[in-house]
Write a structure and sequence with these properties.
29 helices, Rossmann fold, about 10% strand, about 700 residues, 9-stranded mixed beta sheet
């Protein structure tokens, strides 16, 4: 894919290549536009999938605010449908959930094609029974009424019925709907209406207005004689209590046909009693509730019989037989109607017994698959954690619903880590999140996987452990996938391209350069990755100006700690000294020695030059001094120089470190702390790849152009 990006943040125009089924490493210094590339591609894909999406417009450069015509454009990624990006947003929103390390860990690690196929095979053997039972409306209604009755008892207590339960509130003083207290008979039609609780609620709302005057607050006629009776309605009847009573009575009425005759008669008497229930009646009701609960569990278990309910049993046939309903064990519910429903369950269980052997085999196979997935994923992640030096391990924990959640546990303490996001360090969070992202991207089979500066926060050992985990050859890594990795870190390129190329396949690396909005890339081959010594030797042998060679040779001597007369000669050139000098310790007062500059003797100078000429054949001290003494000539050399690194050194020589830019950030690159060998043993040649940011050179240019 050839991706073209236009008018997105700091990229006016840019072109990059993304090779399919390949790890594409794009290396660039900070400020080049790496994150903009990632955001632009993701935005273009999302905008193409949804007409309402306008993500690309958010990348429009601020400098174009007055330009209504120029639009942000991304071309070349039209074939991408499924894209995933690892960035700060992923770490903050997807990784480290309250109950698992990554959102949807069951979907990522367990639920795959093999898992679904196994579940479908089990479902094929149990679906007839489940469809029959779930399709029976009377059984569904029976279970709803069972639930209503069970809920009415509230929380279990050691003795009797919970005082605040709907059952207790409705019947503790008897059924005052069926048995209307004396004096309230004139309200009978309202009290015994099927929506009586609404009338009682309305009556309660008006009762507080009774004492305002003698008129009825409901009809505005004189109610002096009836005021006490009206108030009594509010005292005796409470809306919520009446509503609960109605529901319970209705549920019992629905269940009448499922109760034994004796139970039905006793329940009928109970719900219409004038007085509240006794302790014996309370215990009797609890016994009925217990049998209702057990029978309900049998129906529910039969309706949902499958892998979750069979995976823990030793023998499926025995588990099926154990589900058979014998109403002799449910005397309160032993009726013809209940038996008819039990027969439906038992008949289906008989059919299932015929395929019990096959079902047991399918269940065992599914258990083995899950165990294998749990072990494989756990082992792979834990091996990475061990290699990277993290003192944790992960495990997939089964939840009550049969799904699995990825958990984290310290190696030296038992118990899963809670509040993971706040307990892990920044580097640990990034490492965990990156590995979890890999599994998610593989599961979702993303067309393009983008890693936006993923490993810069890790030390060298952890970096390689992560790269090994992500990209080494094998089915459970990004190997062979289309991956765009954007990084300012050079170490991954050294590891993957230079040191361990045989352990990784299908990969390529490029260096990105952004010059005043124009983004270009240059391939990085193994031969381009060199030591500092190799780079200096190559540049000194190249056809470049002798002054540039002086810079490289002096740095080479400095790095190998060879500060002899040749080093002093080279330093004198760079410091624009008419006569070559060296620092020599002299006693400034008794016992106190300080370095003092002195001129080299003719013999010392000749000796130093002789060593320099071995490396720089055209070396001419006087000629170079003459050049460095004329700013106009140095300006011309600066403008003729293509390498930003070499420009930087010429700038320093021209201004002799007296006109360093005001910005501390810019000064960092201009002063003596910036050297190409500072960061890595292996690096890119600064003559071929622009390692100094263009914005630094832009600052230097301003001062250079002011020279007359």
């Amino acid at each position: 894919m050839q991706i073209v990006i236009e008018s997105c943040n700091n990229i006016d125009h840019g072109e990059i290549e993304i090779k399919e089924n390949t790890l594409n490493i794009k290396h660039a210094i900070n400020g080049t536009g790496k994150s903009t590339i990632a955001k632009a591609i993701v935005a273009a894909v999302n905008d193409a999938k949804s007409k309402s999406s306008k993500e690309l417009t958010q990348l429009r450069p601020y400098k174009l605010k007055e330009d209504k015509k120029t639009e942000s454009i991304v071309k070349g990624c039209e074939a991408i449908q499924n894209i995933l990006i690892f960035d700060e947003k992923y770490i903050n929103e997807v990784a480290f959930q309250a109950d698992e390390l990554v959102k949807g860990s069951f979907e990522i690690f367990i639920r795959g094609e093999d898992y679904e196929r196994g579940m479908q095979e089990i479902e094929a053997l149990t679906s007839q029974m489940k469809n029959t039972l779930n399709g029976d409306e009377e059984i569904s209604g029976l279970l709803r009424d069972f639930d209503e009755i069970i809920a009415a008892f509230g929380k279990e207590v050691k003795q009797g019925i919970h005082a605040s339960s709907a059952m207790s509130q409705a019947f503790k003083s008897g059924n005052n709907v069926a048995n209307i207290p004396e004096g309230l008979e004139l309200f009978k039609s309202f009290i015994q209406h099927n929506e009586n609780y609404k009338w009682v609620s309305w009556q309660h709302q008006g009762a507080s207005f009774m004492d305002i005057g003698s008129d009825c607050p409901y009809c505005a006629t004189d109610a002096t004689a009836k005021k006490e009776i009206i108030k009594k309605v509010s005292e005796v009847y409470k809306p919520k209590v009446i509503e609960n009573l109605n529901k319970i009575v209705t549920a019992f009425q629905h269940l009448e046909q499922y109760f034994s005759e004796e139970t039905r008669n006793r329940i009928s008497g109970f719900v219409s009693k004038i007085e509240g229930y006794t302790d014996d009646e309370s215990n009797y009701l609890l016994e009925i509730k217990g049998q209702i609960g057990r029978l309900r569990e049998r129906f529910v278990a039969a309706r949902s019989l499958g892998f979750s309910s069979l995976k823990e049993v030793d023998k499926v046939l025995n588990a099926i037989k154990n589900q058979v309903i014998d109403l002799n064990n449910f005397p309160y519910l032993n009726s013809e109607a209940t038996q008819a429903k039990a027969d439906i369950v038992n008949k289906e269980l008989e059919k299932l017994q015929e395929v019990a052997g096959n079902l047991q085999g399918k269940v065992a196979k599914q258990k083995q698959l899950i165990q294998k997935l749990v072990e494989e994923h756990g082992e792979k992640i834990n091996q990475f954690l061990k290699n990277a030096g993290y003192n944790y391990h992960v495990f997939l924990k089964e939840e009550s619903n049969g799904e699995y959640r990825l958990k984290l546990e310290p190696n030296d303490v038992q118990g899963e880590v809670t509040e993971v996001k706040s307990r892990l360090s920044f580097g640990e969070r990034n490492a965990f999140a990156l590995v979890l992202f890999m599994f998610q991207a593989l599961k979702q089979k993303a067309d393009l996987i983008i890693l936006d500066d993923p490993i810069s926060s890790f030390d060298k050992n952890k970096k390689y452990a992560i790269m090994e985990m992500l990209f080494s050859k094998g089915n459970s890594s990004f190997s062979g996938k289309t991956v765009l990795m954007l990084t300012h870190d050079f170490e991954p390129i050294v590891d993957l391209i230079y040191h361990h190329r045989d352990r990784f396949e299908s990969l390529g690396a490029w260096f990105l350069e952004n010059k005043q909005g124009n983004l270009t890339e240059k391939a990085i081959e193994k031969k381009d990755i060199q030591t500092f010594v190799e780079i200096n030797a190559s540049n000194i042998a190249d056809q470049i100006h002798a002054l540039h060679k002086v810079v490289y040779l002096r740095r080479y001597f400095e790095v190998i700690n060879r500060k002899d007369l040749a080093f002093d000669v080279l330093s004198s050139v760079l410091h624009k000294r008419k006569y070559p000098q060296l620092h020599e310790k002299q006693e400034v007062r008794a016992g106190v020695f300080e370095p003092v500059l002195r001129n080299l003797t003719d013999e010392e100078f000749a000796q130093g030059v002789a060593e320099v000429v071995k490396h720089i054949h055209e070396f001419d001290y006087d000629g170079l001094y003459a050049l460095t003494s004329v700013n106009a000539d140095m300006k011309k050399l600066y403008l003729d120089t293509a390498s930003n690194y070499e420009k930087l050194h010429i700038y320093r020589m021209i201004f002799d470190e007296k006109a360093i830019a005001n910005s501390n950030v810019i000064a960092k690159f201009i002063n003596q702390s910036f050297h190409i060998e500072n960061d890595y043993i292996y690096q890119l040649n600064p003559r071929t790849y622009q390692m100094v940011p263009q914005y630094v050179i832009d600052e230097c240019d301003k001062a250079i152009h002011a020279i007359q």
